[in-house]
Amino acid sequence: MYIIPAIDILNKKVVRLREGDYEQVTQYDVTLEEMIEKYQSHGTDFIHIIDLNGAKNDFSNQQYLFDVIRKTDMKVQYGGGIRSIDKVKELIDSGVHRVIVGTQAITNPTFLEQLGKELCGKDKCSHQVIVAIDVLDEVIKYSGWMESSPIKLMDYVDKCLQLGFFRFLCTDINKDGKLGGAGIELYQKLLDHSPFIKLIASGGVSSMKDIEQLSKIKVEACVVGKAIYEGHISIDEIKNWNLESLISI
To answer: Spelled out in words, what is the top-level CATH class assigned to the domain 2-245?
Structure first.
């Protein structure tokens, strides 16, 4: 298992939300460019960038983010406001390592099938495209976590698998931004249901102990944000963990 540092952007500022609530924002006195440089200088080569404006259909950040991403040689996992197949293609062509799709995959029943046909074969899609599953009490949320889907969690996972998408980013909203521990129970349920999925855990990681617990249940990776900004996990600890994991990302 490896660790991916997270950078959430709202109004071009580095922030963290609590439980996905745009009214509960912590803003950090650092720019996206400075954070990327900090991670890169400490030997980290993989980052997770989320456009929180884009997640709620405000695309004022996108050009700024795309310009920054094009300038870095780090591997970028990017999400927020990706509403079309053309946008997925544009991001991959611009050098984004993995694109996260969420709302459109849930609200448009044919989106993932079309994406698979137009962009890639089944195997390639599982590496370039991540399906986001944002979960609150086993209910899937979308549009910046403001809307609820009637689709049952495990049914949605099964549908994605049938279409050739095997990599999931699962955020436990109950845990997100609280530094209260990762959603081990939720991730274990998903892995018990589909042991062969590549699961990226997100939300609540507060210490290296949480990282160790996630590693034990064999998630592929975990995203860490607030714990870094608040000094609970150091960038050097992330670097050392990833080196010791001996996993090619």
So the answer is: alpha beta
